[in-house]
Amino acid sequence: MKKIVRCIKIAAVATVLTSIAILTSCDFLDVVPPEQAQLKDATKTEKSVLGFLYSCYSALPNTIDYNSATENGGVDEYTIPPEWGTPSIAMATNNFSTAGPPEWKWGKYYRYIGQCHLFIRELEKTDVISDDKKEQWKAEANFLIAYYHFLLLQFYGPVPINDHYIDMNTPAEDFPGRSHFDYVVDWIANKLDTDVIPFLPPTRDGDEWGRATSVIAKAIKARMLVYAASPLWNGNFPYSEGDWCNKTFETPGYGKSLVSHSYDPAKWERARTACLDALNAALDAKHELYNDLEYYAIADVKKELPYIPGLSDEEGDKAETELFKKRVMMLRYMINTRANQGNREIIWGKWGGMGNTPIASMPLKVVRTANNGWTQGWGGISPLLTTITGFYTKDGQIPEKAAGNDFYSKEYWYQSAGLSGKNSDETTYRKNIININLNREPRYYAWIAFDGGDYGMKLYNGVPLMLDMKTSKSPTTVGARGGQGYDSSLDRHRSLTGFLSQKFVYPIVQMTPTSTSGNQESPAPMIRMAELYLNLAECEAAISDLNNNDTYRTNAFTHLNEIRKRAGIPELTEDMISKSGMQLVDWVLHERFIELWGEGHRYYDIRRWVRAANYLGENMREGLNADKVENSTFAVFNQVKPITSIAFKWTRRQYLGSLYYPEVAKNKNMVQAPGY
Questions:
Q1: Closest-CA residue to 197 (of 147, 148, 152)
Q2: Which of 49, 56, 337, 585 has the fewest other C-beta atoms within 10 Å?
Q3: Number of domains in the chain
Q4: pLDDT tens-place string over residues 112-148
């Protein structure tokens, strides 16, 4: 399976489209790609036409990369050092400015919408490709037009619809304003249904993997309709009609209104229908939840299984312990393997979409080099305590709900578990493991790393790295491991919470005094099967909770429990819901938090449910006492502290992204988001 991103880059260089693909734009009125004198060269051969099409994919988002996505590192999943200065920091501190938003999605996506329209126009003129290919390639461009509109919609709310190629000489007053949110939803859905889905294949393999399919289109439509049915856009918008509406531009059938302020239950039914269609289409295309418990033995010739604190290796427990460990490894490979390695879970992924997240996740001071340096990661992807206490117990319960019953009482969470190791060196590390890290579900051990536990399977010279998150020890012996705690000499790189992530790190990456090896680039998941099950379960749970629909309630349990079973935890029951005091939809949303952790969903999930203030306010994001505390003691380190090096804040204006001020100044039809 070749990388479509690489193909895009090669094709763009090979054609005259390079200048189009890298064109910068500051506002909506400048998004039209210029017609180069050599534009005709772009459709001279089938190869050049395909290169033109590939260039239209170049705006696909990096869903995992903390550095390029506003959504990542700015919510309650993880945080990053403020010195990294990413857009997510600006978002998390309410520093989005109309003078220059830190991540300019608006200009990027409208620019590529314009490029897609230009491609369609030029495609219709050429006679160098067959009618069948012309039909399919046009559908791909139309898919991207719909998808880029959806990305704008989910971030900015109501947006202008660009439904045709706009000439560069178009007067500013002829540019459209924002259309009503529901109108944009209907337009995108109709475009996918009419111009895209009938013309695309359900799957792609080999060189074509990563290009649009009918299953991808159905999944995007389903996701959009779930968003549209959610409270933010279905009766609970935090501003009144009088606070925010168009001043001049009118949407057909809606007038100057931008958002519907009354609840419509039909939106959930419409979303459910689309979610069921998407899931069935994916299953028909042979997509499935990844569940290969033996792949670790193929990938790793040593067939090693991870250390899990507190698991019994006694004779009667060996089989259960081994199965648990295999599931941990399976969940690591679920994120980090490719379709040609048997992973049919990822429906759509982007090559290069993880960016620097793997290296930013890996620990500091893994192994000393000969020149008195370190082979190491950046150690900055720092899971917050909402993550640590949010993942389930081994019994599939939320720790706080199970505290004092089936799990440790909260007063004991940050105390030593009293573990020992096979030798004195191992015991030195294991004694630092605290109770909150015991008796947790497989996903916790697959994706989260903690003081005294292991990172990876081979990270330190071919063996797991036992983490020391408290100290900054720096031995000088070549090949020695150091401490992964705060070091003032590495101030820019540090964990702010005392925890690390290993979700997006290939399980058998290895660091030695001379190199880093064993890594594998894998596509960042943009759509995977787990989301389709959870989308459908959410619709069914929402309808059931609101209308006491027993059939939908049963179906919601079924679809949610597909994810729980794969995770290796007990199925959710009515008794568990009753004892928790939560609604079924709350359990679905919590499952999304865990299963889709770090994949770019959380920001939009808590925003669309109008719950962001419950998680993202001042002093709400906490960790252990790790930030800028050098060579700490066990007692000092294991204190719960709010993250103070970042001035986190949430106000209602953050439910919408802000526009760069020339958008409003130049276009009389445009209105700014409220509160900016």
A1: 147
A2: 585
A3: 1
A4: 999 999 999 999 999 999 999 999 999 999 999 999 9
